[in-house]
Amino acid sequence: MDEIAITDRQEIKPISGTLLDGTSFDSREFAGQVTVYNVWGSWCAPCRTEAPVLRRVAEETSELGVRFIGINVRDNDAAARAFEERYEIEYPSLTTGTSGAALLAFGPALPPSAVPSTMVVDAEGRLAARVIGPVDETTLTTLITDTLNGSGAPR
């Protein structure tokens, strides 16, 4: 887990692409909101472990204006949609066909083969925290709370 001090945060590039439901996504629509991006694949065992955690935290923080976006990698859309249905994931995910550009938006902060990974982006569009590997509920909730509260001292 890496929590980035406010003074060291780097802006991420805008992310756009096609969601699994066929609609378009543009991260600029979430300007001014804390956004959590999760890189996942249906074939990934740790992704299956963390899926219920992500679902719960997404539900619990939605009233605070926090948005979640999945970035599906190396999957076909049918397998990805089945994964979301099985784990009752309500937030949208980018398709594998458009996820490559989304991964590049995080630059060197996100290794290309780091699945799962979770990034928390602050309301100013800067990377506030990242977790390479599966995330647990306490860690994710703390990272989101710190970002919402405008803190972010490295731990």
Q: What can you tell me about this protein's structure?
A:
By secondary structure, this protein is an alpha/beta fold. The protein is 31% helix and 21% strand. A 6-stranded mixed beta sheet has the order 1-8-7-4-5-6. It has a two-stranded antiparallel sheet with strand order 2-3. α1 (45-61) packs across α4 (137-148). The relative contact order is 0.27. The longest helix is centred in the middle third of the chain and has 17 residues, at 45-61.
Quick description:
With 155 residues, this protein is an alpha/beta fold. Helix content is 31%, strand content 21%.
Annotation, overall tally of beta strands: 8
Biggest pleated-sheet summary: 6 strands, mixed
The fraction of residues in strands falls at: 15-25%
Calculate the terminal CA-CA distance, rounded to whole Å: 9 Å
Sequence of strands across the biggest β-sheet: 1-8-7-4-5-6
Task: Give the ordered list of helices and strands.
Answer: EEEEHEHEHEEH
The geometry reads as globular
Percent in helix: 25-40%
Unreliable runs? none
Mean pLDDT: 93
Pick out its properties.
about 20% strand, 6-stranded mixed sheet, globular, alpha/beta, 4 helices, about 160 residues
Write the layout of secondary structure elements.
Layout lengths: L1 E2 L12 E3 L5 E3 L8 E6 L4 H17 L5 E6 L4 H10 L6 E2 L1 H9 L12 E5 L5 E6 L4 H12 L7
Helix pairs in contact: 1-4
